[in-house]
Amino acid sequence: MTSQQKKTTEKNVTNQKRPKLSREEILERKISMARERGSRVIKINSPLGSIMFNVLRQFDQAYANFKGKLGEPGGISYEDGAQMMAKARDITMEFSDLTKELSERVEFRYYTPDELKELQP
């Protein structure tokens, strides 16, 4: 069995374990998640915003796992972790700057998040 066939088989087994949820169950889960502490609800207005939101969601999940593996044997070293987080902060700052520039050009008021102001030199 090739690795691709193995992945497909594993995916099919995983899919078989989960019963398909009804529309009502999905809606109930979404409402429940929106009520959780730390949750954010956002209305996406553009295709690019949708893509960025999907990337952000995955980054957030990866970050939660990253914290658990930081400094652990077989995990991520503190040095590598610090470099990755510095890069993430830089990307966040650059994205904020781009959003501010775009907002100014279309006469939309952009508010730099307070947490980001604290990171600025």
Based on helices, strands and strand pairing, what is the structural class? mainly alpha
Helix content: over 70%
Oligomer: single chain
Report the radius of gyration as a whole number of Å.
Answer: 20 Å
Strand count, sense and barrel status of the largest sheet are: none
| Unreliably modeled segments | none
Distance between the termini: 55 Å
Report strand %.
under 5%
> What is the helix tally?
5
What is the average per-residue confidence, as pLDDT, rounded to a whole number? 86
What's the order of the H and E elements?
HHHHH
Shape: flat
Number of strands: 0
List keywords for this structure.
mainly alpha, 70% helix, 5 helices, 121 residues, single chain
Describe this structure as you would to a colleague.
The protein contains 5 helices and no strands. It has helices at residues 3-17, 23-35, 47-69, 78-105, 114-119. The longest helix is centred in the C-terminal third of the chain and has 28 residues, at 78-105. It is flat and about 50 Å long. The mean pLDDT is 86.
